[in-house]
């Protein structure tokens, strides 16, 4: 925060990238509430959060287990006109599965598919892993079969996930 205060002190106007960097630093050390204060300061300075801004905060919330706050931020982001990306959905899906909220994760995955957001191998791996870790092995197997039927390129990560799943 020292450098940020210094920049303000010499009359420089921080841009979105500088605010994002500061928020990312706070989130990396688990100080998400400090990052939210930076977001508020950014908005007060007349700058609009970007997809990157929201992604940083979503990741921060999910990493400390505050999934409800992450979902609320996800909704705020959508209402503000920032379109969710594959990466944002991946963050939310991973957070939901890690917190045992499997039903909600499956709903988000369905929404992602219905919204036309690109679903890549990383997303499939998150979902397969989440299903396996939450004792939904049969669903993981069905999804894996769907991927093969759709000719989705199965990578080593997905194969390792399925091995972990004991299928």
Radius of gyration over C-alpha positions, nearest whole angstrom:
18 Å
Q: Note the gap between the termini.
A: 49 Å
Count all strands and give the number. Answer: 0
Question: Helical content, roughly?
Answer: over 70%
Helix-strand makeup class: mainly alpha
| SS summary, helix count | 10
Main sheet specs = none
Taken together, the total number of domains comes to 2
Q: State the oligomer.
A: single chain
Shape call: elongated
Series of H and E elements: HHHHHHHHHH
Strand proportion, as a percent range, falls in under 5%
> What's the rounded overall pLDDT mean?
92
Give a summary of the structure in a few sentences.
The protein has 167 residues and is mainly α. The protein folds into two domains: 1-83; 103-166. It is built from ten helices and no strands.
